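Record format v2
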Amino acid sequence: MNFAFWIISAVTVLGALLAVTLRNLVHCVLALILFFIGIAAHYFLLRADFLGTVQILIYVGAVAVLILFAIMLTHNVTGTEGPREVLGLKWWSGAAIAAVLAILLKKAILSDPLATLLPAGDKAQTSVAEIGKVLVAGWVVPLEAIAVLLTAALIGAVVIALEEIRKSR
Amino acid sequence: MWIAAFLIPIGFIFGVYLTIFAFTTLVERKALGRIQNRYGPNRVGPFGILQPMADGLKILLKEDIVPRAADKFSHFLAPVLIVVPGLLVYLVVPVAPGMVAVDLKIGVLFALAVGTVSVIALFMAGWASRNKFSLLGAMRAVAQVVSYEVPTVMAGVAVIMAAGTLSTLTIVERQGGGILNISNWYVFRPWGLVGFVLFVIGGLAESARCPFDLPEAESELIGGYHTEYSGFKFALFQMGEYLAGMAMAGVTVTLFLGGYMGPGSGPGLVGGVIAMLWFFSKLAGMIMLNIWIRGTWPRLRVDQLMGFAWKVLLPLALVNIVAIGFWHFLTPRPLAWVVTTGWLAIWVVVLTKCNAGAALEKREYRFT
Amino acid sequence: MSIPLGHYLILAAILFTVGLAGALTRKNAIIVLMGIEVMFNSAILNLVAFWHYKHFAVPTAQLFAIFAIAIAAAESAIGLALVIAVYRHYQSVDVDEMQELKG
Amino acid sequence: MDQHLQDLARQQWLIPAIPLVAAAIQSLLPRGARKLSAGICITGMGLACVLALRAFVATLGHHEAAWAVCNFTWFEFGTTALQLGFILDPLTAAMAAMVTFVGFWIFVNATGYMHDDENFTRFFCFLSLFAAAMLGLVVSNNILLLFMCWELVGLCSYLLIGFWFHKPSAAAACKKAFITTRIGDVGFFLGILMLFWQTKTLNLFNGGHGALEQADKLAQLPGWFGWSVATTIAVLLFIGAMGKSAQFPLHVWLPDAMEGPTPVSALIHAATMVAAGVFMVGRMYPLFIAGGSVEHPTFAMDMVLYVGAFTALFSATIAVAQFDIKRVLAYSTCSQLGFMVMALGAGGLVPGQFHLLTHAFFKALLFLGSGCVIIGTHHEQDMRKMGGLKKYMPITFWCYLIGMLALAGVPPFAGFFSKDEVLLVTFQRSKLAWGMATFAAFLTAFYMTRQMFMVFAGKWRGGDDHGHHAESHGHGGHEPHEVPWNMWLPIAVLSLFAIGLGFYGGKYAHYLGAEEEELSGKALVMGLSVAVGAVGILLGWFFYGRKPLAHASDPDPLEGKLGWLFTCLNRKWYVDEFYEATIIRATMATGTLFRMIDKRVVDGILHSIVWIVRGISHVCRLVGDEFFINGGFDTGCQTVRGSGWLMSKLQSGRIQTYFRILGLGTIILLVVYFLKS
């Protein structure tokens, strides 16, 4: 069971790393998609199936495509990155900060007693229906809020992107 | 041991569906021939039965050309990604009672989610071949798939609300019973019928077949996103396309046509076999429907296609959800029938009326 | 034999820092957005891990996760729209060139 | 009667006012208004003359000295009030009448003399201004007003002497006149100050507590050099008089004043201005005699006496050797003034004043006569170039003769009586002075006859010395011609007075209120003076009448006799040269000395101070301002800008920088968290 965890986390980390370091934008997106699928797999491992599918549906289906479209719109079609930028002070400082943060987090996690908590065993997995019921019953207001937020985001994105067409004509 | 438990369904899926794919190509060409008043392929083997094998062999022997400027990695990966979602859908399609590769509680959602992956594959294919036409074709395909996916999912929501569960098995079970295991099919419900139509149209659009086969419309884009592919990759593209089509057909069957439910299908071995027979016959029927449509309907224009998806199908799907709502809460059955059919009829009229202008506007030619 | 929570936390931490490093070092705005997406997902993974190990019975965690994913999606949509608009102005998505809002 | 006098006194100020107004009007007239200007001037003088005579007549009838004063407040500041006043007494009345009458006729003569001068209007404006000043001096009862008019008179003499300012000699002469009189005025001014200081009032007669009424009180107070205050004031005032009346040390300006037109000389240097000094002494007489008696007079009286006597003798000697017709008369005036001063010094107020009056008339006559001669001979002034004018200018000759006889002291004429009185008084006082005076009288008679014969006898020597020049003009020498009526009428009138005035000597004494007293040795003095006069005339005839000069270039007969003495006399005893050598050089020397001191010492000090200050300021700028203030300030705002710049770097607009800062922040928080736990 846990070797699946290692494989999937390896895949996820690889995806993330590649997404960040690759030169070719489209390859980055593909790596990112791999990363998203890795995360979805983790959700399945953690027995949060619904989340897994939602993750795939939203991220892989929508966000990845969105990013691809963004790349298409803002880049020359070849999508190749410009000349490899010199690893200036900026690059090193960024990496240094991230590394230090990683060390500190790791130290924090290891020192915390929670780290050694073991899974509670195979209790009944919450079914999607349950989630649905709770969602609609207890969390209706947030649900509606999220709905409004998403519509607003939708309209906002359209307005920002569209402006170009009206202007160009 | 548990690995074996995994391998058998995978083997079944591969074996069954791939052979169905092979023969669908043949049947399609013969049917189109028939529609076009000509014989289909009948040279290879009796009545052209061996034509698929010949095609397969031919494609295997063909040289696999990769354009120099192409993006090696994604060029190679694209065909694979197109095939995978098609196959993944079959995991959740119940062939016989209890016989489903994986009985996911969120089967339907999984099937639909996986469908979205194909979008990326299309794009990668188009983009990787560094060809303006293929890129245009890919962009069109992506746009089309994405815009038709939404109404399809919404239509599926109606069924899920009716069945109350996402698991495909339970949905099929719910459609059983009734007169000869048929009357309970969702297709015989008003909202079910609307949902069925939406699903069929969605299915055609997603697999870019017939009226919506703009991406690789020969006359305009010389084959769309898979122009640069040749040899086995091209075969994979064909396979992916057909599998996606059949996958949508399978899902349609499970959701609306009662899956393996039919007179005589039951839990036992014999019932199971009869159920499987019912399932595959319904599947064949749906495929024939696709081929039939392909043979008869003209290709849509891009703006008509997009307009149709967002201005007609989506509203209809939302209306359908409302209808299922009425159906669910209006306890006296006939009242439910009247209300939902009336509601749906009104909306159908309204939608066709307000979209009439857009859809059928007279096309003015610049160079008369 | 099963995996302790610590592993997931470390995994999430690593993913988060990788995302942060990406966001910090890369010059391309879209890559930065992707970095941010990675950070988002690592956070949600962390949340789900905690849910799985401590409050398995309670479904609300998943709600939170869903809401978080929804928000992340909206955010990335807006982000990308902005990037497109900025691109129109700057004719490039180089983060360093977008300096006009300076002190 | 007294009320009438009081009214007249109150109208006294009109006499000077009318000529003043006339002068004001004339000053506004354009150069072309010649007739109008002359008319205004003469009418103004005529009116003043009428008023003066009216006042004179009013004072005649009184048995004792008719006397009225009118004081009024000029202006007040704070508690002290400055008062002015006018006086009507026999002295003033007589003097005013004389000045206006003689002035009138001189103005009439001037119209002829200045006939072809283009600044005609300006000349007559100055004349009326002068008349106003003189009359103001005469009628004032306030010593300050007197001093003001005194200065105005000095100014007018300057203007009139220097009338032909384009002649350098005239310009120098008017300056000389003005400065010499100013020197005298300094003494006068000190006297006024002392008088005011002691008596606290400037009015001479103010109902009891006027300046002069306190003379006896002043006599007791100790003044300078051991004299009493009164004597000191008297001495100072006399110095002023010496300057104005050309007494010995300060007489040098009078001969040079002849540069002015002849009517000016007649008016100013014969009749009026020079008489002002004598009049002022007469006016201030109580101060002079205060503290002393006839037996042992005060020092002031002695001083006046001997100065007068010496001046008379001295200038008479110079007059003998002069060739310019006007210079002879100038020196004669000088000696006659010496006689008047001597008379005053000898205690004879009345003889002095009476001689002043008579002298005014016949000296004005002589000057106007010389004016006529000059016009007649076309501006010829050198007696050697004249001669034989008797036949050409008969009227002028006869009037001039009368004037000469009066001056020489021939009995029936005015000059004899007044000079005799003077000699008589001097005889009482001091034999030395009387001897000098008598010799002076002899010299006077001599040089007057010399002048008569040189000018009127013999033949016309005009044009001789230029010899060939005259012929080249083709029509022989310029024949002298008789002067028009408006020139010889005045001298005719004046000659009448020169004859008749002498008989009124006794009446004049009574008029002035002096008590009649019989003086000893009257016959001796009178006889001697007549004899001396006759001898002088005979000698004059002997040298000059018998064989008048043939040519202008002939040497003067006297010159042969006297030799070096004659040239010495002609050079005016080298007094001018002496002054030039001593005083003027001394002042020039002191001037240059002070200039050197100023240049070296004062400038030096100043420059060094300036240099030091500049140095200090330079240092301050360098050290203080530049280094501390600017430096401090600059560094201050530099740091502020620097920090500002630093902060702005943070807001660099690059998103990733903000991200990095964010990361840094979280790291720090974590570190703190670890450190704390």
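The mean pLDDT of chain A is 80.
The first helix of chain A runs from residue 2 to 21.
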